[in-house]
Amino acid sequence: xxQSVQISTQEIWHQYIDEGRLDIxxxxxxVANSWQRCRQSKLDPLEKPRGPVNLIELKGRLDRKRNLxxxxxxxxxxxxxxxxxxxxxxxxxxxxxxLLEVLGDKEVLEKxxxxxxxxxxxxxxxxxxxxxxxxAIVEKKPVQVYAWEHYCKANHFLTCSACPIFGADxxxxxxxxxxxxxRVANAHTLGMVVAAVKAIESQLRLQKATHELYxxxxxxxxxxxxxxxxxxxxxxxxxxxxxxxxxxxxxxIDRDQMRGRHVSQIHNADRMIxxxxxxxxxxxxxxxxxxxxxxxxxxSSAMLRDDEGGVIGAVAVFREHEHQVAFHSQPAHAxxxxxxDIVGTSPAILALKEWARVAAASPFTVLISGETGTxxxxxxxxxxxxxxxxxxxxxxxxxxxxxxxxxxxxLFGYEDGSFTGARKGGRAGKFQIxxxxxxxxxxxxxxxxxxxxxxLRVIQERKVSRIGSAIESDVDVRIIAATHKDLHSEAExxxxxxxxxxxxNVLEIRIPPLRERIExxxxxxxxxxxxxxxxxNRKPIPVSSDFLEKAKLHSWPxxxxxxxxxxxxxxIRAGEDHTLTAELLDFPSRLLPRTEPVNTxxxxxxxxxxxxxxxxxxxxxxxxxxxxxxxxxGRNTLYRKMKEQGIxxxxxxxxxxxxx
Length: 660
Known about the structure:
By secondary structure, this protein is of the alpha+beta class.
């Protein structure tokens, strides 16, 4: 803006403040309208600026807008990198104009703090008069306010460029602003702010879409897990992609072990599914006999197709013949592992196995603690298989995976008509199914206090009653519980019952993290490579010494599960008949690392989605299954999006899902 225009605006401001005269042809419409609003609200343009909100209120606003602040911060830092040292600062506010985050040079921040252009400052139009932040909130569009265009005299040294941020639902979320001395104003400042806001809004839309997809997945997965019929699905090669809890119960298998294996390994289940893949003919109510069980089931099977009609697998739904199923004949979860399957010769693991064998021979409750991925269920199965109950059921239930309303019915069962949707004839709970055997309560630290109280009573009384029934049944069950939490600390803060903690913690087994047994890594690598080679029908996989040395230097926060994943990635990168070397061992983070400055012009949501999908596939070495898991969407959905986005499907290699 030229010096003559600047002086003219100053004179117009004085005329309006002193005399109330305003020639709207000489002032931009946004500024003129804002001045008039300020005068009508009797705002004093010469009044000393109001101080920022108190710290308690500011903390509350920061907590409420934490997602917006975290999502916007990289874009703010990128903007600040452009204006560093120029006298400008970058500001983020909430939807009312309260400043949440401010980036700027130290001397600039000290100067602007005098007018409360700092964290906690209120820059709504009703408090600060005409200014880019407050006026953008009112006008709901990008606004630039220059020098004497500010209604309040204290702000005349500023030039401000602000753009409102709208969420995916169209609601105002906040404002992004760049402010500085008007004498160093840049014509492109507002454009830079608008571009950054466009990118932030794209991220908000993508975040909302991802959340909706994840919510839909959780909803459908919950329905799948608690349907009264068993279900198995396979891909086009007959490899198991999904099996629900009821399906695992009917066939008497560990579903985590079966995922990624061929359906022929499940007692005659291939006779229900493979013919559908072979000839495309669906069937209903076909009866088969479960081998080694002496029982028959009936089921229906059908093709699975994508949106274009292409075959992507098959699914079978089945149920037991009710007249054949007595209560105690319900199949239990298989327990495959013994102490011989626990790999390691370190003093820590040898001492632990010895103590676990002692625990197995006793009738007392066992509490297994350890970080995620250390093998808590492996120890639980080994203890069961070394105990006098080895020939009785082993029932595993993940307390963290079940929704709160369902966990009680899963543990204790329910009577016919006890609640809406209850299965006709009722259903036995896991304690009754495990009668005579072992029940493994994984992640027990996530169990609600109400269910904890009922579990405590079962342990004390050795009786259980179904929901909706006053009749109590005797149960003889050995409990093994596991958690990654410190239950004593949880009890101290009131999240876990002390009386239940002491009942469970009769015999404690703490599994050390992998970083505390580094000497076991060579044996673990040897064991895992053999298992991976067998799973993928590969020749023995050679491992170099530098691969092992690099593995020993890593902290392995994900423990043995992370080690297995890292080995799988290395095997895929190495290809057939190649030795695993140190350069093939990488440790990608859960989020993709940013290797270049943030691009503030992300363009449309479709363009952003294309970039995210492409980068995720690249980080997963073209493995569509892993990419879909990382994105939190289904594999079929990812294939469809790849086709829509023009991403080469042929470059992506799908691998069988490994057993966990």
